[in-house]
Write a structure and sequence with these properties.
With about 140 residues, the protein is mainly beta. It is built from no helices and 14 strands. It has one domain (about 1-140): YVTN repeat-like/Quinoprotein amine dehydrogenase (Methylamine Dehydrogenase, Chain H), CATH 2.130.10.10. This is SPG16 protein.
Length: about 140
């Protein structure tokens, strides 16, 4: 199964080798910039030009949580390996760590001088790496 998101504001899961669409989700009001499966595989997270991050339940094909807090487009998202936290990177120059259980922002990471374009948790750690239009990479300890 492959997960995609695009300018059509939809995420889709595709089965291979046939390439058929298995599931489609809609709800964002602008393009999708990122999407990834929760480590358990039962949910996914998407990021969008509409400045939100959304959590989706695959069994219901529906959005179960919308995370708001960025003031501009969200360029990327990533799950922590434990499955309880999501990271987001935004054109507003910040990144956020979201606690999925409490449904709130745990940390806002400030330090880049321009748009944050990508974010990833390093596997099985509390370290996040971000990249920015300011031509820097940053490592963050989010404990």
């Amino acid at each position: 199964i492959v997960l995609t998101g695009g300018d059509d504001r939809l995420w889709k899961t595709w089965g291979f080798p046939d390439g058929n669409i298995l599931l489609t989700g809609e709800g964002h009001t602008d393009w999708l910039s990122g999407c990834c499966f929760r480590p358990s595989g039962t949910q996914l997270v998407t990021s969008s030009g509409d400045s939100t991050v959304r959590l989706w339940d695959l069994s219901r094909c529906g959005c179960i949580l919308t995370l708001r807090g960025h003031s501009r487009a969200v360029h990327g998202c990533s799950w922590h390996s434990c499955g309880d936290f999501v990271a987001s990177a935004s054109a507003d120059g910040t990144s956020k760590i979201w606690d999925i259980n409490s449904e709130r922002c745990r940390y806002t990471l400030r330090g880049h001088k321009d748009s944050v374009n990508s974010i990833e948790f390093l596997p099985f750690s509390s370290t996040v790496v971000t990249s920015s239009t300011d031509k820097t990479l940053s490592l963050w300890d989010v404990r």
